[in-house]
Amino acid sequence: MALRIRDLEVDIPLALAPMVGLSHSALRSLIVQLGGAGLFFTEMLSAKRLPCENEKRSPFLVRDAAEKPLIYQIFTSQEIELECAVDRLAELHAQGIDVNLGCPAPQLRKMGAGLELSRQRGTVTTIIKGLRRQTNLPLSVKIRLGETGDPAKLLENCQLYQDLGVDLITIHARLDSEKFCRKPRWSVLGKVTPKLSIPVIANGGIFTVDDARRCLEQSGAAGLMIGRGAAHQPWLFRDIAKELYNVKPNGILSNEREVYSRFITLLEARFVPERRLGRLKQFTHYFASNYSFGHLLISGIQNSLSMNQAVQFATDFFDNAA
User: With contact defined as beta carbons under 8 Å apart, do 31 and 88 qualify?
Assistant: First the structure.
């Protein structure tokens, strides 16, 4: 069951995905308390800005000691940015470094980063070589299936990363151009994973234990990465760990209201006041789908002008839902 990434031993091969506005300290700590996750990734971080960020105040760098192992995901398009970024990550006691090669956001692609970087063979080779030369930390990349999902082309790309010294590949099982609403193509991974000597984590479309089971069966992956499903049901890691890996649950929260309340408490503990409400709104967008009338919770939180107003609305909502 354990997943080995270079010198890093991951007890449960279930990872929280790097998600902008979601994979911050509050959600990571909530999932730690619920149990089941074995690996965490930060939000996507700019390699250029990283050396200047204050880990005591930056919402991207704030963390609790229990959030481990924690791999920091960076985006970049220039080798010159790497040295200072790697030095900063060493200071932050990162357990690994992940390079974003799959984000299709237009602003990132204009910079030559994310998905665009994956298409620049020379540049991506230079960057990964540079990272491997500068650090002994586990090094990973997160990619998509490519433009067409051709298994031969996907394998060629994965073998390149493997040969460059990458220790782990996470594959989001959708084409480069596909949106989240499209069905993930887990079976494509199954044609690639047996031919690699490094572990592959499968990502995309995992919202239930059954999804997780089918993804593992079709992909042959060494582990799973859960994204939006983690905000929808933060206890999903615990459920998958119990059902698929026979891990005894150790979570301390028992119902949806307690989970939501704890998330608010963690936001207040980790972030300065002006950084809290926006993150609550983003989390609520996913979490509210646990309720038949969840759209009312979304609307109320979205229209709140302060955390106090949002907390009061949530209290009234859960009282009425009881």
Answer: no
| Residue 32 binned pLDDT confidence (cut-offs 50, 70, 90) | very high
Who's near 80: CB < 8 A, 6+ residues apart? none
CATH code of the domain in which 183 resides = 3.20.20.70
pLDDT for res 253 = 67
Same domain, 152 and 57: yes
CA gap 139, 99 in Å, rounded: 8
Evaluate whether 173 touches 193 at the Cβ level (below 8 Å): no
For residue 104, cis peptide bond before it (omega within 30 degrees of 0): no
Indicate if the alpha-carbon torsion angle 173, 175, 176, 178 is positive or negative: negative
Report pLDDT digits (tens) over 109-154: 899 999 999 999 999 999 999 999 999 999 999 999 999 999 999 9
Q: Are residues 195 and 297 in the same domain?
A: no
- pTM passes above 0.85: yes
Residue 193 confidence (pLDDT) above 90: yes
Give the span between the Cα atoms of 142 and 103, in whole angstroms.
9
CA separation for the pair 24, 26 (Å, rounded): 6
Please give the full DSSP string across 31-60, using - where no structure is assigned.
HHHH----EEEPPPEETTTGGG--TTT-TT
1 pLDDT more than 90: no
Amino acid at 9: E
